[in-house]
Write a sequence for this structure.
């Protein structure tokens, strides 16, 4: 089998297309979650904790940095080692919200599948062959 033909069969399969759609939807879903975290959740958490921005939360391990200096400026100070934990907090909250949203989505899909499986299937009408075979059977029984 030629390489091009084999690649065409692979690319046209439903699984590859489903994966491509999933990646595109996942990217858009990730942007929505980022907005929820950055625009809705972080301001509420910042109001409780008192820090206006998690991305500028850090600890200076070595060197001297002016207090209240932004992280980007603090990183520019020579001979300074900085433990920047604020961005990690933002990413961790982002992950937890994304995991919760995916869990709720999967839970809803599973509930819909259970309802679909529980619904009795309507009996299919017999095919022409089955009808013909039933007539033959009945004729043979009558003899």
């Amino acid at each position: 089998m030629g390489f091009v033909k084999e690649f065409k069969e692979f690319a046209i399969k439903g699984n590859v297309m489903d994966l491509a759609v999933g990646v595109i939807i996942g990217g858009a879903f990730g942007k929505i979650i980022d907005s929820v975290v950055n625009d809705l959740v972080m301001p509420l958490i910042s109001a409780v904790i008192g820090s206006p921005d998690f991305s500028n939360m850090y600890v200076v391990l070595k060197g001297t940095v002016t207090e209240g200096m932004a992280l980007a400026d603090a990183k520019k100070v020579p001979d300074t080692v900085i433990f920047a934990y604020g961005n990690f907090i933002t990413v961790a909250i982002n992950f937890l919200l994304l995991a919760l949203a995916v869990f709720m989505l999967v839970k809803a899909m599973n509930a819909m599948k259970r309802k679909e499986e529980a619904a009795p299937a309507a009996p299919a009408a017999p095919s022409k062959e089955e009808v013909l075979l039933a007539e033959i059977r009945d004729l043979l029984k009558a003899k």
Notes: The radius of gyration is 30 Å. Helices lie at 3-12, 14-49, 71-76, 86-118, 128-142. The CA atoms of residues 29 and 98 lie 9 Å apart.
